[in-house]
Write a structure and sequence with these properties.
By secondary structure, the protein is an alpha+beta fold. A hairpin with a 4-residue loop joins strand 8 and strand 9. Helix 1 crosses helix 4. The protein contains 13 helices and nine strands.
């Protein structure tokens, strides 16, 4: 199997194991030609095509999607064409490639094991237009229509617009943090938008809250007060369930580390699994591939641990050595540790 074929198949199998369906975006992010922040930018309507943000050209992207198609057909997956619409105000169709037909990118491959009810739910969700996306910019900007500025912008016809020009200035901001209140306020609001901001450290867009109609927010607050005790009990049960899931997942990851690296001390394997698999950390252990214990994702978690704890990498960064140069310098050290750990204890 060629190197690209193997990378595409690994990414597709990880997505299929987690969600029972695979998309072209799962593959393109899985082989690391795109980052999730690129996909977010594209969905917001801030890029003409996904190809503009990718690390490779459209021909290479098309090759990966062709490999995905062959693999999916061999596995007996069911094709489902899916619309892609931007989260900008004009809801324009999203384009994958700068030139050429991108219909193959819009196919979702669904496991035949997925129930009919789940397929209907999936089809309804995919057919639904995405939430309007409003951005809290990090830099100074100017509205394309009135030449003014403001705390938020929304893309319309490929250009930034202020909320006044986009007819969204009557909405009020509800910060994230209360899922029940946000869900109910959004449901009651005739017009709503999600507010995001780019996190430079994590290199991704993060949700800040939502914009909703003031009357909808007031009604949602009344509804939440009426059943607050019930929701508190449910949240506590959910917290306990998630904690149990994390313990099981980290134990499974530690066991997989020991299987791949039998010379790795068990206590070190446990530390790597706990650190990489921490919920909400954004580390490699929380990726879709790692959650199904994909060999490549688990290996990346081990390499990250070795890089920081068994080499001079952190000291180099503190002394001003560029990150890429520092990684080149420690490559032999990492290979030496991994080589020792791959040998039986």
């Amino acid at each position: 199997m060629a190197k690209l074929d193997r990378r595409v198949v690994e990414a597709a199998e990880a997505a299929l194991a987690q969600r029972k369906f695979v998309t072209a975006i799962d593959v393109l992010t899985g082989v690391r030609w795109l980052h999730t922040r690129h996909v977010d930018t594209w969905r917001q309507g801030r890029a003409d095509t996904l190809e503009q943000l990718a690390a490779v050209d459209g021909a290479k992207m098309a090759d990966a999607v062709a490999i995905l198609r062959r693999w999916a057909e061999e596995r007996g997956l069911v094709p489902s064409e899916t619309p892609y619409v931007s989260a900008s105000r004009d809801r324009g169709p999203l384009r994958f490639l700068t030139d050429g037909d991108d219909a193959a990118f819009r196919i979702h491959w669904i496991s035949p094991e997925m129930s009919e009810a789940r397929r209907r739910q999936l089809a309804e969700r995919q057919a639904k237009a995405p939430d309007l996306m409003v951005v809290e910019p990090l830099k100074a900007w100017e509205c394309a229509e009135c030449r003014d500025t403001g705390p938020y912008l929304i893309m319309e016809e490929g250009a930034p617009h202020c909320l006044t020009c986009a007819d969204l200035d009557h909405l009020v901001f509800l910060p994230a943090g209360n899922a029940a209140l946000s869900r109910r306020a959004k449901k009651e609001s005739g017009l709503a938008a999600v507010v995001v901001r780019f996190n430079s450290r994590r290199r991704r867009y993060e949700r800040l809250g939502i914009l909703v109609e003031e009357a909808a927010l007031a009604l949602a607050e009344e509804q939440c007060l009426a059943d607050e005790e019930v929701r508190l009990r449910r949240r506590e049960r959910d917290r306990e369930r998630r904690a149990e899931e994390d313990v099981r997942f980290q134990a499974g990851m530690a066991a997989e580390i020991v299987r791949l690296f039998p010379g790795c001390p068990p206590e070190r394997a446990g530390e790597i699994a706990r650190h990489a698999g921490q919920r909400g950390s954004g580390r490699v252990g929380r990726t879709a591939a790692a959650r199904v214990l994909d060999e490549n994702a688990v290996t990346l978690a081990v390499i990250a641990s070795v890089r920081h704890l068994d080499t001079d990498y952190d000291r180099m960064l503190m002394s001003g050595v560029p990150r890429t140069e520092a990684r080149d310098r420690i490559r032999t050290d990492i290979d030496r540790v991994l080589g020792a750990w791959r040998a039986p204890a």
